[in-house]
């Protein structure tokens, strides 16, 4: 090969396909969209937004190739954001036996998540950030 795939982008992991890389980039972009959406919702009911509402609204405004693959995809991205301290999750299930799913969960951005969207803290490779782009 004239050049290796890994020389194109320092965030590519050796052994990952271009399709995996595209999915990783899409997920970084979606995490950023989720944080920006949650940040804009802060004025509403303490900033809590239902998972289903967030899913429907974000998927309704992005091209098909940049949408969530399904409920589990958004739940996985939210687990990443909650685990990193950028968002909080609230379980709204009212009866025993209700499934853990978007319809029964709400989310809101944390001060750390807001600081990341306003570029007041260092970038995180988990979330798309112009400061991480290679010129």
Describe the overall structure.
This protein is mostly helical and 135 residues long. Helix content is 40%, strand content 9%. It has a three-stranded antiparallel beta sheet with strand order 1-3-2. The radius of gyration is 16 Å and the shape is globular.
Characteristics of this structure?
single chain; 135 residues; mainly alpha; three-stranded antiparallel sheet; 4 helices; disordered N terminus
Produce a short descriptive summary:
The protein is mainly alpha-helical. Helix content is 40%, strand content 9%.
The dominant shape is globular
Helix-strand sequence: HEHHEEH
Largest sheet descriptor? 3 strands, antiparallel
Q: What gyration radius follows from the Cα positions, in whole Å? A: 16 Å
Structural class given helices, strands, pairing?
mainly alpha
Helix content: 40-55%
Strand content: 5-15%
Distance between the termini: 23 Å
Beta strands, count: 3
The average pLDDT is: 86
Count the DSSP helices: 4
Strand order in the sheet with the most strands: 1-3-2
Poorly predicted runs are: 1-8
Helix-strand layout with pairing:
Blueprint: H1 18-40, E1 49-50, H2 51-61, H3 71-83, E2 87-91, E3 105-109, H4 111-117
Antiparallel strand pairs: 1-3, 2-3
